[in-house]
Amino acid sequence: MNFKYRNTGFSILLGLALFAGGIELKAQDVQNSTMKYGRLLRLIDSYYVDTTNVDDLTEKAIVEVLRGLDPHSVYISKAEVEKMNEPLQGNFEGVGISFNVYRDTLMVVTTVPGGPSEKVGIRAGDRIVAVDSKNIASVGLKNADVYDYLRGKKGTKVELKVKRKGEENLLDFLVIRDKIPINSLDASYMINENTGYIKLNKFSATTTSEFMEAIQALKAGAKLNNLVLDLRGNGGGYLTAATELADQFLTAYKLIVYTQGKNTQKKEYTATALGELEQGKLIVLIDEGSASASEIVAGAVQDWDRGVLIGRRSFGKGLVQQPFPLTDGSMIRLTTAHYYTPSGRNIQKPYEEGAEEYQKDYLRRIEHGELFTKDSIVQNEALMFSTKVSKRNVYGGGGVMPDLFIPLDTSKYYAYYNNLLRKNVVYTGVLDIMDERRNDFKQKYSDFKTYVDKFEVTDEMVNKIMDAGEKEGVKKEEKSVEFARPLMKRQMKGLIAQNLFSTSHYFQIMNAEDETIKKAVEVLAQRGAYEKILSGK
């Protein structure tokens, strides 16, 4: 039997053994099953009526086996492995720009500070029209094409031809590719004189260092007594990054999380004495998009009565995956353990009915009204636990329930605004404005405070975008238009700020009207409110 088939068959049938009920098979049983699958492949290859691709059949078999285990055990092809790792490793190798394919041309939106493109003088607003003498303008360029053209190994060179507004001729740049950071921290700023705000989009290899840098910057510029940690929409990442973040808030030796599985010994992760924010008030924001590592942090904070959780019930992923490489460079991510919060909660939501039903959980939450009213949430009394200090009731079996519930925006005309966003006309409209007025804006608004105080998005700017939306099939209705107008003005102001300053400044503008953040500030400001929630009285 071919060596590749032998090893692939072993991986598949090991999964089949687990699926069959978790029975621990003897080595001889596994070998017999492996030989059985190998014989199947040989028979297909030798006798099947039509031409077959045995590698393709093997991949499909792996996918189906893992699908039957749990929703988070998955197969990852060789081609997907490298791209999958980039966001969590915290970097990739390339030229260091964020871009948009704008009117069939590659437009530089921002350059990475200190990155290869900024070093050679490429600017926001530049159009890259040729890469290594190959024309890429007006040829139906796609985002995936851009990655193929611009990404490459550190130290390799790429020649770019750039069209810059105000320059008659094309500009030539030689860029030497380098490692480019992928930030897990979206925003960091002071909400008021003593309350900081940090938003994380994932838990990656660089999350701890990014968080520490942000905290030091906040402490250097203000008296940081309180922190609002925003984990909404954060789908998780590395377990280590989660425990290191939780460690910043908990005193030494406190349990953060423990993991355990049928074939995995219990492993505890505890806090050290090196936390940066072990004192002061802490608010953690969560919602139905907060999963895995986010839930580890939220669960530890809640179980130790260390901070107040505000938002909606989290996703409910309490399974730990371990990567196992296969012989051809592909891999499987196999669930090997459950994780448990300090009180002993496993917050994994049920998945016994299969992956398809599991994926419908969000729709069921909407149908049951859970995203709109706290009373619609039914907790499993059999999975009730107590927090470690105040002995408040908390529950396992399906996400982390916040201490204060904030309903999802139920506005009647929200669909119109979302349709404009989906058609990308809002962002494209902002690119139009920046293309026309970038230099003017930079001269008028040299700092963020001046921009916030003096710049206003005009009705004329909004009308142009709405007109563009109509051309894209988004029909204008008077009530919808009037509702969407203030939302569009705020987002457009935020997007322009992002172009002029940073992503953090975008969130600073958008968060000004965020109901969950308003509630967090209220709890921190109102005397005794924070303490009352944590006491459970």
Counting structural domains, the number is 4
Distance between the termini: 68 Å
Number of beta-strand segments: 21
Major β-sheet, in short?
A: 6 strands, antiparallel
- What gross morphology would you assign? globular
Structural class: alpha+beta
CATH class of the largest domain: Alpha Beta
Q: Figure out the total of helices.
A: 19
Architecture per CATH nomenclature, i.e. the level-2 architecture of the largest domain: Alpha-Beta Complex
Give the amount of beta strand, in percent: 15-25%
Helix content: 40-55%
Q: What is the averaged pLDDT score?
A: 88
**CATH T-level fold name of the largest domain:** 2-enoyl-CoA Hydratase, Chain A, domain 1
What's the gyration radius in Å?
26 Å
Q: pLDDT below 50 for ≥5 consecutive residues: which ranges?
A: 1-23
Task: Explain what you see.
Strands 3, 4, 5, 6, 7 and 8 form a six-stranded antiparallel β-sheet that branches. Strands 10-11-12-15-16-21 form a six-stranded mixed β-sheet, with helices on both faces. Strands 1, 13, 14, 17 and 18 form a five-stranded antiparallel β-sheet that branches. The longest helix is centred in the last third of the chain and has 23 residues, at 478-500. The chain is built from 19 helices and 21 strands. By secondary structure, the protein is α+β, with helices and mostly antiparallel strands. 41% of the residues lie in helices and 20% in strands. The chain has four domains: 3-69; 91-181, PDZ domain (Pdz3 Domain, Roll); 202-207 and 233-408, 2-enoyl-CoA Hydratase, Chain A, domain 1 (Alpha-Beta Complex), CATH 3.90.226; 414-501, no CATH class. The protein has helices at residues 3-19, 27-47, 54-67, 78-89, 116-120, 143-150, 207-221, 239-247, 293-303, 355-359, 361-367, 414-422, 425-444, 448-454, 459-471, 478-500, 503-510, 515-525, 529-535; strands at 74-76, 91-94, 97-102, 105-111, 127-131, 134-135, 157-163, 171-176, 178-181, 185-190, 195-200, 226-230, 255-261, 264-270, 281-286, 308-311, 319-325, 331-340, 384-386, 393-395, 404-405. The relative contact order is 0.09.
